[in-house]
Write a structure and sequence with these properties.
The structure holds two protein chains of two kinds. Chain A is built from six helices and ten strands, in the order βαββαββααββαββαβ. By secondary structure, chain A is of the alpha+beta class. Chain A starts with a strand and ends with a strand. By secondary structure, chain B is α/β, with parallel strands linked by helices. Chain B folds into three domains: 2-196, Thiamin diphosphate (ThDP)-binding fold, Pyr/PP domains (Rossmann fold, 3-Layer(aba) Sandwich); 208-361, 3-Layer(aba) Sandwich (Rossmann fold), CATH 3.40.50.1220; 384-556, Thiamin diphosphate (ThDP)-binding fold, Pyr/PP domains (Rossmann fold). Chain B has 24 helices and 22 strands. Classes of the chains: A alpha+beta, B alpha/beta. At the A-B interface, α1 and α2 of A face β16 of B. Chain B: Residues 22-135 form the Thiamine pyrophosphate enzyme N-terminal TPP-binding domain. Chain B: It comes from Flavobacterium jejuense.
Chain lengths: 195, 582
């Protein structure tokens, strides 16, 4: 069954790495739902958050191919129930219409949105949440002559990821043989799926 | 990156101040004990070639006739010796000519370090003369690649390149060095070999519980069957592998890439797997109860149709590359690690057995293949020569000691089916990528990698014409390479498929050849063309006895087919012995 998987990739911060990761998907003609790169909690180590809608089996192979990239430390694969995730969206609407026709205060409260900028000509709202929340506000604001809309890629925190930091750091040790073990998957999927 | 101190400074280049990036490249090669480089100069790599000029004694540079020849030669060198092959090429077309070889080395796990020149850093992205985005072109076909724009990076990056290329599951690494970095003078602190890259795990950790589970499955099996690939050779685990199969008495088949890891006449060996492999091992894959795969990756040419592949069997998969586990075939027990390490652990736990009854099933299948097919292939008494009988006579003369380098197509399948091999690293062929034009340059490289061994390049008339310019390399550098062209005046394998699956519509497979013997003589290479059975043995002997390279062209049966065959889209048990069965 195809479902959303969120991959969290820890890697070196290196020119061209984004391409090295992206071609793993494009080679298999798999579309990315969302792709985010950011610094991680560890200095000089980058974190990519990738959302892909595929079967567990396909994703498992993708994860292993990404982990095979020399500059990648570790990849975590989680379904939506295993992560806390958010996206942010910005909406630009004409101030004249929105002030006249909408109950802005109710809107803000109902959708948990904020106003970022108010100008004579336009107002920018910001909303943070998951697909539904962002789409509902989009639908609502569309009624008031939406000028521009943009949504960020997903960022996610893994619920049971107390060990991530340590595991990634462990790989830096000189003797790689003493680092943690990778073939956990044969045991039942415990706290989080990992390679 | 962690490194090991190496006091190589004084020995190799004898200076530390004002060292050019190019000289640092040479020092890196010398420090890695590289003795042979295959390459072709050009504008953007000229500073490196200039530095090379002073090291003629310690670095043997082989000037090829095309960069594709250089990289295939480096592959042949690496495959026969186990060392890392090194290639120099210039930017733009020089670098793009490496692409086929990189893809080949990537899919066949061959350790290479390719150094390409690149335009000055300030010209990157300006469509400068001979500028190509070689890093992005080669990303999917290298294990690792990196562009150097500052000479200070060179020692560390090259150390990393050699470590990555040769460790774990080997593969090709490409380092692109801009011309300014080659020319740049810097304070050189010396070369330190790399032993660890923090984001890279060369080998997964071996876990005993999986070894125990695997041993239990093997011990309980009534019909265990071992299939192995190049992993056994790459891990230098031939002895460990033999100890394992001999103790447990396991019938054992090889993939084309694993061939020669055990002697082809080993009593436990039941032949080759794959589309044109042997009848028994293909057929009985679907009868075994435990399938033990060692250092192989379940290529589609081995498995045939996946949903009809070994569905009845529990699968034990030993591999160094975690990405191979469950990629194509679902595993019951995965044993991750270098098989050099895992096999002895497994051997200690398996029981001594013989599986006599089970072996009989292989014998029956072998008998069937022999009577229906092999006998008339190897010992025909009339008609034109067959490829099989050429191999049969060659076996007699070489006693299975030669390195056989094959190209791609019918002759490749026939050679791998019938060549007798007694030593590991004797079978060099383009397995995964199926690169025509591979054999001639790879044989040149193989001869430099193993000068003491007889190297025979076997090719068809099509593949022979694909990198034929490398006869020039033979002329100039005189590796003693025997060139055996099996000429059926067709692109034989494609023609076979056209006959079997496209109603004999021979669309552009009728290929003409030059007079190969005359051509060879233009390169000062002796040669002969034969077509008669009575000339065969004496001519092959003449070829082998010739003190220098020699080209023998054998005209073989025009429209012969390679069987057995697992037709595409069919399961391994649907293997056929003749075209009537398709």
């Amino acid at each position: 069954m195809k479902q959303e998987h969120t991959l969290t990739v820890y890697s070196e911060n290196q020119v061209g790495l984004l391409n090295k990761i992206a071609i793993i998907f494009s080679r298999r003609k798999i579309n990315l739902e969302s792709f985010n790169s950011s610094p991680s909690e560890i200095e000089k180590i980058y974190r990519f958050t990738i959302v892909v809608k595929e079967t567990e089996e396909v994703v498992r192979n993708l994860v292993r191919q990404i982990e095979k990239i020399v500059d990648v430390f570790k990849v975590f694969n989680n379904t939506n129930d295993e992560i806390i995730w958010q996206q942010i969206a910005l909406y630009k609407v004409p101030t004249s219409i929105i002030m006249k026709d909408a109950k802005v205060e109710r809107l803000l409260r109902q959708f948990g949105a904020n106003v970022v900028v108010i100008r004579n000509d336009y107002t920018v709202f910001e909303a943070t949440g998951q697909d539904d929340e962002i789409n509902n506000l989009l639908k609502e604001l569309d009624k008031y002559g939406l000028i521009e809309f943009v949504r960020s890629s997903r960022i996610a925190i893994i619920k049971s990821s107390e060990g991530v930091h340590k595991q990634v750091l462990d790989m830096q040790k000189n003797d790689p043989r003493k680092s943690p073990i990778n073939n956990e998957y044969l045991n039942s999927k415990s706290k989080i799926f990992q390679m | 990156m962690e490194t090991v101190e190496q006091n190589t400074l004084e020995n190799n280049i004898g200076k530390t101040h004002n060292v050019s990036g190019s000289l640092a490249v040479i020092d890196a090669l010398l420090s890695e004990d590289i003795t042979t480089v295959f390459g072709y100069p050009g504008g953007a790599i000229m500073p490196i070639y200039d530095a090379l000029y002073d090291f003629n004694d310690s670095l043997n540079h082989i000037l090829v006739r095309h960069e594709q020849g250089a990289i295939h030669a480096a592959q042949g060198y690496a495959r026969v010796s186990g060392k890392t092959g090194v290639v120099f090429a210039t930017s733009g077309p020089g670098a793009t000519n490496l692409v086929t070889g990189l893809a080949d080395a990537q899919i066949d796990s061959t350790p290479l370090v390719c150094i390409t020149g690149q335009v000055f850093a300030h010209l990157l992205g300006t469509d400068a003369f001979q500028e190509t985005d070689v890093i992005n072109i080669t990303t999917p076909i290298t294990k690792w690649n990196y562009q150097v724009t500052d000479a200070n990076e060179i020692p560390e990056v090259l150390a990393k390149a050699f470590f990555i290329a040769s460790s774990g599951r080997p593969g090709p690494v490409l380092i692109d060095i801009t011309k300014n970095a080659q020319l740049q003078l810097f304070d050189y602190k010396g070369y330190r070999q790399c032993v660890h890259v923090r984001s890279y795990r060369a080998e997964p950790i071996v876990r005993n519980e999986y070894i125990e589970q695997a041993a239990k499955l093997i011990n309980e099996a009534k019909k265990p069957f071992v299939i192995f690939g190049q992993g056994v050779i790459l891990g230098n685990a031939e002895k460990e592998f033999l100890a394992f199969i001999e103790k447990a008495g396991l019938p054992t088949a090889w993939t084309i890439m694993g061939m020669s890891a055990i002697p082809t006449n080993h009593p436990l060996g039941v032949g080759m797997l794959g589309m044109h492999g042997n009848y028994g091992p293909n057929y009985l894959t679907n009868e075994c109860d435990v399938l033990i795969a060692v250092g192989m990756r379940f290529d589609d040419r081995v498995t045939g149709r996946l949903d009809k592949y070994a569905k009845q069997a529990k699968v034990v998969h030993l591999d160094i590359d975690p990405a191979e586990i469950d990629k194509n075939v679902a595993t019951t027990v995965a044993v991750w690690g270098n098989c050099k390490e895992t096999l002895p652990l497994l051997t200690a736990l398996v029981e001594e057995k013989t599986h006599t009854e089970w072996f009989k099933e292989f014998d029956i299948k072998k008998e069937k293949e022999t009577t229906q097919l092999i006998t008339k292939e190897l010992n025909p008494t009339e008609g034109e020569l067959t490829m099989g009988e050429v191999l049969n006579v060659l076996n007699e003369l070489t006693n299975g000691e030669a390195v056989i380098v094959t190209d791609v197509g019918q002759h490749q399948m026939v050679a791998c089916r019938y060549a007798k091999q007694t030593k590991s690293r004797s079978n060099i062929t383009s397995g995964g990528l199926g690169t025509m034009g591979f054999a001639l340059p790879a044989a040149i490289g193989a001869k430099f990698g193993a000068p003491e061994r007889e190297v025979i390049a076997i090719m068809g008339d099509g593949g022979a014409q694909m990198n034929i310019q490398e006869l020039g390399t033979i002329m100039q550098f005189k590796p003693n390479v025997k060139i055996l062209i099996l000429n059926n005046s067709f692109l034989g394998m494609v023609r076979q498929w056209q006959e079997l699956f496209h109603k004999k519509r021979y669309s552009f497979t009728d290929i003409q050849s030059p007079n190969f013997v005359t051509l060879a003589s233009a390169y000062n290479i002796a040669g002969k063309q034969i077509s008669k059975r009575e000339e065969l043995k004496a001519s092959l002997k003449e070829m082998l006895d010739h003190p220098e390279s020699y080209l023998l062209e054998v005209a073989v049966l025009h429209e012969d087919n390679v069987f057995p065959m697992v037709p595409q889209g069919k399961g391994v048990a649907e293997i056929v012995l003749s075209k009537e069965e398709i």
